[in-house]
Amino acid sequence: xxxxxxxxxxxxxxxxxxxxxxxxxxxxxxxxxxxxxxxxxxxxxxxxxxxxxxxxxxxxxxxxxxxxxxxxxxxxxxxxxxxxxxxxxxxxxxxxxxxxxxxxxxxxxxxxxxxxxxxxxxxxxxxxxxxxxxxxxxxxxxxxxxxxxxxxxxxxxxxxxxxxxxxxxxxxxxxxxxxxxxxxxxxxxxxxxxxxxxxxxxxxxxxxxxxxxxxxxxxxxxxxxxxxxxxxxxxxxxxxxxxxxxxxxxxxxxxxxxxxxxxxxxxxxxxxxxxxxxxxxxxxxxxxxxxxxxxxxxxxxxxxxxxxxxxxxxxxxxxxxxxxxxxxxxxxxxxxxxxxxxxxxxxxxxxxxxxxxxxxxxxxxxxxxxxxxxxxxxx
Length: 379
Known about the structure:
35% of the residues lie in helices and 16% in strands.
């Protein structure tokens, strides 16, 4: 079996390479080696048995070459990051949407040989997750918060009818995709394009909606990568992690090793065709608590997070995965505990290249009007 991994030199892609090689698959990687992610070129962790093609996912000729003789494709190539997408609009749309369209057009001509196309998409498309109204248990959705709402009602979303503070509950795949940031819209387009071709041409496609993936090999020098890597780069530099809002906003963190298991299951399961599946743990974790847990795991518990009270425009408050579909269709169950995952991440980062560039990224957001000053309720 031969598999192509687009973006395969990246964080998730490189772990897929390792697993496929261990299963005696032939592995081909197509990756542009973006300097923001790979400032030193091809990473040392990319396995030596990999066939690497350094090329852009938008290059139709090179993509067609990469697909020759391939049985399965994992599409992980993407420009990543919500905040940066708000001011690099053309780049994100071009890479994520046109890149996916280029891949699909090349695949259409080879559809009879394709065993499975797995597209890695994002939970960011949901926007705010599903909420429950405490008074009667009604499930409902809310719009992305605005600064005026936060000043009047506080950080937590409230019911527009009763004024109650809402409770976050797991979000299933059939929940409406309500996000409006550029990154989320491009990842939603990837799903729409892939599933459309699945319906028209019978392509065996599955879209895996990733929640917050973490683990070794995340770029510690990239301030637009996952929040755990950003916090760790600060801690390594002896600086406090910077937390927006009041630190009580939650995210669903899943180990990269569990993600690899999910991708393997998606390739092997016919039941997963032509659908979207959440890949998360279903466990919400407060960002302020996450920063403190990382500091303890790193042996610097005296470095406490700075809780800024500032709002990053477009940020959600809560979204946690409903993983019942993943259990049903993939037999998927996360195996890596939170404590194990943090221990592995911290152990790896001690020998990994790191640079704390958070301040520069934060200033860029401030200059572009994407962050507020500290918000006090009623001001």
